[in-house]
Specification:
Elements lengths: L1 E7 L1 H4 L6 H12 L3 E8 L3 H14 L2 E5 L10 H9 L3 E3 L1 H13 L6 H4 L3 E3 L3 E3 L8 E6 L2 E6 L3 H18 L4 E9 L4 H13 L4 E8 L2 E10 L2 H19 L3 E3 L5 H12 L3 E5 L5 H6 L9 E6 L3 H8 L3 H7 L4 H15 L3 E7 L14 E8 L2 E8 L4 H25 L1
Parallel strand pairs: 1-2, 1-3, 3-8, 13-14, 13-15
Antiparallel strand pairs: 4-5, 6-7, 7-8, 9-11, 9-12, 10-11, 15-16, 16-17
Helix pairs in contact: 2-7, 3-4, 8-9, 10-15
Length: about 425
């Protein structure tokens, strides 16, 4: 089946919010072998909405719509779809009860316009909404399928994952399995070149690379009537890719780099503390997203000034005077200092010039040092990064976690 995603909402056209729903839906449909060929956005206008939907139905088997299911007068998605599909809107008692209970929990009165949300096209498959008031629905007619989902991602995503994706899976005899491999340290162009011999001979298993800022994801997908066969073929290709990319492969579970590192620290019981200068607490902020990380993450010091480096981390004033705050020597003393202060197994430090100003001929914008101290000594890595301030800081965070990951891998092998 070929699909189109049609987002409804004037706020999307005005740039007030980003259309993250389309990205998420595309990814999930791709996982189950449904091709998404068009993304469309239309405002809350009945004439233009009708025109956009008619066009979508002409060129696609499946149209997934988000937005326009609210209680106000300009929420017209259901009305427009019902007109085009030749369906009456009828009161769905179960949805009305769910809406009534929702308002009771909030201790708020149910208004008449909210009752509008319980009216759904006749004979549709209702999709319950556990996180809001607007139910969704699926309509089938003459080999065309229209799916209506609410706009808020916190409501849309569970409804898509729990009902819509299983619905489409049930309509296919073919089993589609995908795996996502996460790579850090090899750019997309070089990675594709390294994998070209596998890409050129791909048959049942397809290989696709996707660049993300600072890293690359490889998606391998297989279709088969026998899921066990599909998984075996997938595992063989994954093994071939792993041989090519080596330790640049940090996850075969589609997890973020910081998640992998956090889990490794927790599983190994290795404690860590951070001393951050140019990243200003970004590394600490990311790692504290991991449940249970408090078992191994002790503390972080955001040390921007030279004064704080001396007072809080024990960096020698003569080191700063001789080499400067952005130097290998200072990074090493910062890492060793935070490890000593915190009494942890590891101490990580970052210091650099994120820009846009502050660089010199000898120390340009993008110069960053990352140091990792342990009982066996301190390693330091110099980076020459490019881009704006945000990009340089984000790349520094990724490199910091990768440095920890590689140390943990080597520790396991020793």
């Amino acid at each position: 089946m070929d699909a189109e995603i049609l987002a409804v909402g004037t706020e999307l056209l005005m740039g007030q919010i980003a259309n993250t729903n389309a990205q998420y839906i595309s990814q999930r449909l791709n996982d189950i072998g449904i091709n998404v060929y068009y993304h469309s956005v239309v405002g809350d206008n009945p004439v233009r909405l009708k025109s956009a939907l008619e066009l979508a139905l002409k060129r696609s088997d499946v149209v997934i719509m988000t937005g326009g299911l609210g209680p106000t007068q300009d929420d017209l998605t259901k009305e427009t779809v019902s007109e085009i599909m030749g369906k009456k809107l009828v009161l769905h008692d179960e949805s009305l009860k769910r809406i009534e209970n929702y308002f009771k929990r909030l201790n708020r009165p149910l208004t008449k316009n909210n009752i509008k949300q319980a009216y759904l096209p006749e004979d549709c498959l209702v999709i319950k909404n556990d996180n809001g008031t607007a139910p969704g629905c699926i309509i089938e007619k003459e080999n065309k399928i229209v799916v209506m989902l609410p706009g808020p991602p916190s409501e849309m995503r569970p409804m898509l994952d729990d009902t819509v994706i299983p619905y489409f899976k049930s309509k296919s005899q073919e089993k589609i399995v995908s795996k996502y491999l996460r790579i850090f340290g090899i750019g997309e162009s070089l990675l594709e070149e390294k994998l070209m011999h596998l890409i050129e001979k791909q048959d049942n298993v397809t290989i696709a690379t996707y660049a993300k800022e600072g890293e690359v994801t490889i998606r391998i997908t297989n279709k088969s009537n026998d899921e066990a066969v599909a998984l075996r073929e997938l595992a063989h290709v994954e093994e071939e890719i792993a041989k090519v990319v080596g330790d640049a492969l940090y996850s075969d579970e589609d997890k973020e780099l910081y998640q992998i590192v956090g889990e490794m620290l927790i599983n190994k019981g290795i404690t860590i503390a951070f001393a951050e200068s140019c990243t200003g607490g970004l590394i600490s902020s990311v790692i504290t997203d991991i449940p249970g990380i408090s078992a191994v993450f002790d503390r972080a010091v955001v040390s921007y000034s030279n004064k704080s480096k001396v007072e809080n981390l024990g960096v020698k004033q003569e080191t700063l005077d001789k080499f400067g705050a952005v130097s290998r020597e200072t990074a090493v003393e910062m890492a060793e200092g935070i490890r000593k202060v915190a009494g942890t197994d590891l101490g990580l430090s970052v210091t650099g010039i994120a820009g846009p100003g502050g660089g010199t001929e000898f120390k340009p914008v993008g110069l960053v040092y990352i140091a990792l101290a342990s009982k066996n000594g301190t390693a330091c890595k110099e980076l020459r990064l490019a881009g704006n301030r945000r990009k340089i800081r984000n790349y520094t965070v990724l490199n910091a976690f990768d440095m920890i990951r590689r140390w943990l891998m080597n520790e396991s092998n020793n």
